[in-house]
Write a structure and sequence with these properties.
It is a single chain. The strands form 3 sheets. A 5-stranded mixed sheet has the order 1-2-8-5-3. Strands 4-10-9 form a 3-stranded antiparallel sheet. The protein starts with a helix and ends with a helix. Helix 10 packs across helix 12 and helix 12 crosses helix 16. It contains 17 helices and 10 strands. The longest helix has about 30 residues. The protein is α+β, with helices and mostly antiparallel strands and about 450 residues long. The radius of gyration is 22 Å and the shape is globular.
């Protein structure tokens, strides 16, 4: 497309859903950083507003407006993002590293004795789920449903079911944490001075969980694929060196876990890089194409963090440090435990999942000499329901600490005056927590249009 269209190209994301794809690095930066011209507020999406895009289009759950920091601008964005960043800042990276190591060991122990595994299904998919269940105080049975719903959103399969499933799960989580707050990100956001409503909590969690599960899975798998298939890295692995940080940098440049997203809308007709961009028509950033712009040729990628895999500007990923830590530890732990890991198919036989937004493998089959469990005291990772209990002094709430006496995510005081030190909240009278089903996207679109 770059050869024929230049830095911007007209594309069709799904049937009837047209957009402009930003392929050039500089064009992408211009969109991401020029907030006075390009906005994330999807209520400006003319195609959805005038009916050209159907409410049940697979693009809608990923692109339609939600009242969270991802779609907000100006003061509303600062308020909503402040609740997110202050809460994420309370995560102790040392405690997070320890939790990733423990979860990784539990998962590896389930297949180490077999001599083969699918690293997508057996490792990279459940690992972020188990970590986020702990980080967000989410019972495992809800987290499992959440990941299935998020995967369907990214794939664009059965979008209304996917949106409904994610909504139902997160409403249950919000109700649970209103009743039983703990030392977890969900409770910290509820206790934040931004005073988020239940609806705002729901949609903040949509963006956080969406960004923290599917893309994290892809970052882990894409890094493992590179390490197992690229001679530059495979030789180092055979020699006992684990260049995981270098592999992550390479993947974030050349094979980012989210290939295309960060949808923006021109607030007026505007010309960019010789192309006229109509008001209200989506502009999608291709992180993969921008990172591989020939204009950047010759730049060293090792240790270079100028890529756009985390986006840029005021909407850049607020959890990139956490995401990188989780992926690094997950990959290092696997290679430490199974150093003779090898791909079990030819590299060109690997299959990528459909969908315009992510870069995701369907499976990553590997083989290795069977190994014994190194952590026999740990039970295999099994997703079982957690029944909430009232908070009692000295008790362990979901997400506050592990049952074996592990540390809380951050036992120290909050890092800023805007985050209360004690993670408690009071239920709002007449709040928006529902026990029934949330209206489907068609109802949301009708509300948006003033009906």
């Amino acid at each position: 497309m770059r050869a024929t269209e230049g830095p911007l190209a007209a594309v069709e994301l799904y049937p009837g859903v047209t957009a402009t794809l930003a392929l050039g690095y500089q064009a992408a930066l211009d969109v991401l950083r020029t907030t006075e011209t390009f906005t994330k507020d999807a209520r400006r999406w003319k195609g959805l507003a005038d009916g050209r895009v159907a409410p049940d289009s697979p693009a809608v759950p990923m692109m339609a407006f939600r009242p969270n920091c991802f779609f907000a601008e100006g003061e509303p964005h600062e308020r909503l993002r402040g609740a997110v960043t202050d809460s994420l800042d309370r995560i102790d990276p040392n405690a997070l590293r320890g939790q990733v190591e423990r979860v990784a060991d539990r998962l590896i122990d389930t297949f180490a004795g077999r001599g083969d595994a699918d690293l997508v299904a057996d490792y990279a998919r459940p690992l972020p789920l188990l970590i986020f269940n702990e980080l967000f105080g989410c019972p495992a049975h809800l987290g499992d449903r959440l990941v299935r719903g998020m995967a369907a959103m990214f794939d664009g399969t059965d979008p209304e079911w996917a949106n409904q499933e994610v909504t139902d799960v997160l409403l249950q989580l919000v109700a649970l944490k209103r009743a039983f707050p703990g030392s977890d990100v969900t409770s910290w956001m509820m206790a934040h001075q931004a005073a988020l409503s239940d609806e705002e909590m729901l949609h903040q969690l949509v963006v956080l969980m969406g960004a923290g599960t599917e893309p994290e899975l892809n970052l882990i798998c894409n890094s493992l694929r590179l390490l197992l298939t690229d001679d530059r890295f495979a030789g180092d692995l055979a020699g006992g060196s684990l260049p995981v940080e270098d592999a992550l940098d390479e993947v974030l440049w050349t094979d980012p876990p989210v290939a295309n997203f960060a949808v923006h809308y021109p607030v007026r007709d505007v010309e960019l890089a010789g192309h006229l961009l109509p008001e209200g028509e989506p502009v999608v950033i291709s992180f993969a194409a921008a990172n591989n712009d020939p204009a950047l040729a010759g730049s060293s990628r090792t240790g270079n963090r100028a890529h756009l895999a985390w986006s840029a500007g005021p909407h850049a990923c607020p959890a990139q440090g956490h995401a990188r830590l989780i992926a690094t530890v997950a990959v290092e732990r696997l290679l430490d435990r199974l150093p003779d890991l090898a791909l079990d198919v030819k590299p060109d036989e690997l299959v990528w999942r459909p969908g315009p937004f992510h870069r995701a493998l369907t499976a990553l089959p590997v083989r290795f000499p069977p190994a014994t469990m190194t952590t026999p005291h740990l039970a295999p990772a099994v997703l079982t329901p957690v029944v909430p209990v009232p908070a009692v002094p000295g008790s362990v709430l979901p997400g506050s600490a592990d049952a074996s006496g592990g540390r809380t995510w951050n036992p120290t005081a909050a890092p800023s005056g805007s985050t209360p030190a004690v993670p408690t909240s009071t239920a709002r009278p007449g709040g928006s927590t529902r026990t029934g089903r949330w209206p489907r996207w068609s109802s949301l679109v009708a509300w948006w249009r003033g009906r």
